[in-house]
## 1
Amino acid sequence: MFSKDISDYPDGIVLPVDKPYRWTSADVIRKIKWAACRHFGKKNLKVGHAGTLDPLATGILLVCIGPATRKAEQLQASPKEYLAGVCFGATTPSYDLEKDIDRTCPLEDVSKERLLSVLPSFVGEQEQIAPLFSAKSVDGVRAYETARRLLREASARGESFDPGDILQSSLINIYDLQLLSYSNSFDAPEPVEPTEGRGRIKVADVKGYDLRHALIKISCSKGTYIRALARDLGEALGSGAFLGSLRRTRNGGYCEADMLSLDSALELLG
């Protein structure tokens, strides 16, 4: 447990929290900030994170408390490592399970051998277009806000969702890609309908769809969207793809062995 005096930590505190499934990064920050302010007796203690994780992702979320918030940008700039479960044979507007499948795709050219043959072409510096369902800013508006509006309008017209050319590409670097496993089926998670509070994040029902599944280990630079990589891998195989799971296993010099559950992090601030 930490002492009650924040001045005992002149460099601040960095907590490598294992972000819970269906929690947003902001949910975690709010929870820890409340506990930290109470623990240290400060009404306006700075608490932030070094790199957002999607709601349906888990793994390392670096929570910075006090003076450590000044290091957030430096921590965020470090290489990252992920375990990504990529599903081939369908697409979703968000490129993950937060939105329902909107298109099924051919699987004739999807195989372990074909995937192994295209992975090397995604290693190195490259231009990547982020998902429209993301926190990117477009003319001062979050991209996901524009995406939600376009999806509502397309649904009202009975048309499929088309993100268009709203986002510009960004330079990223993928240092390494390793195929850990490949399966001709996907063990889909149980669907969940959104509710209030932290339960507002949906998990789409993809049971019954004919999908292929690959578990890929990814080492990459800041700014790399793994959902966009899944999209691009699907297109490279003449099919479609989305993320079935995502876990960040390394960030800012921290790895899985360093992670604290949210409950453990809160106990340190008890």
## 2
Amino acid sequence: MPADEKEKSFSIKRSDIVYKHMRDPAMLRYYYKAQTVSAMNNLQIEGSSPTDIFIGRFGYPYVHIGPLVPPEHGDTSLLSTPEMWWKLSMEDIVSMRTRLVRGMYLTKVKDVEKGRMQERVRDLALAERPADAEVSFAKKPFVKLEMRDEVQPFGPSAEMKSFDVYNIKADKKIESRYTDTDAKAVTSIVELYHRGVHVSKIQRSLSAGLFGLGQNRKFVPTRWSITAVDDTLSKFNREQVKSYDSIDSIYAYYNVALDNRWLIVFIPGNWEYESIEAFFPGTVWNEDGKHISIFGSHEGYHGRSTYAEMGGCYYSGRLATTEKLLQLRKQGRALILREAHAGYTMPVGVWNVREHVRETLATEPVVLHNVGELLQHMAQKFEIHPREWIKNSHMLTNLLTQKRINDYIA
């Protein structure tokens, strides 16, 4: 079903949104909590889960597992498909996701095949389409708004007394990998990706312990599974990209989404990748700052051996850029520059990077012929001066090693 039809089938209650023009993080969090009050007053919830689950990480190897269920029935698949959110506003995304109530059940990560609760979570992750669910809580759900950029926000949470799910039809592609207990998790991840399964669905399946050698399967915290899949797929793509000839010019792609300005650049040469983010005061990760916060991570031709300083966004961006280079059948240096402005007051998940870099790379690029033209283009698109980007960029600094920066910047 096309994305616009999906949006119609699960309507976003825009009339309920009172903060449409708010840019105050405290007010946005207040609204987030206010949206969930009705769900917090019940010890039971019934609705159509969009096959979404959440696996916690605190206390590992004992973690909380459970479903995400909205108090409504129908086609709720939009709620758990980030690949369809790139047209939505941040307010719409928060309003949509806060309807999902999280059930929690404590288990050992290796007990993926033991117990009724574990079975129900696994069945939900295997489902092809939204399934009817009933959850009974030990106490009233509570709201704990956490600022995490890896995962999407959701509504209140509570310990489960019982959890049942009905009318499940297994996704045949996912099921084929689940039943293959002799295949490594990496094999299943790559195969499903090439069969057109959404990255978000693969991440959820890995989190539910559906992949890997039978004796090694376990629940994977959602935060970890998201980055693991982005990392695995982008590494696989990267090695294919290296087999192609270099691009012959500088290609610059520009886009604005969620009050973020994106400039993705492909520069001639062998594979190299860098992602740099700049957060203005009042935005996520720089809420109380007085100055713009700029940070990034970089890798050369052979990749990197340590976890990226900037976290999961690095790997989701790398996946999107390698996808485009594979489409072009070229290799080159890939540079992501991101300016987060005042409207970006709440993290919505690293899908934001993957999907909006994909969206940006689907636009028509500007073709540039030298680094000087690139710096002039950056000056036109960004509020931050090119000199500041250079100071924080391993790639741009190397490109300018043989030149004086003032030769390019007025």
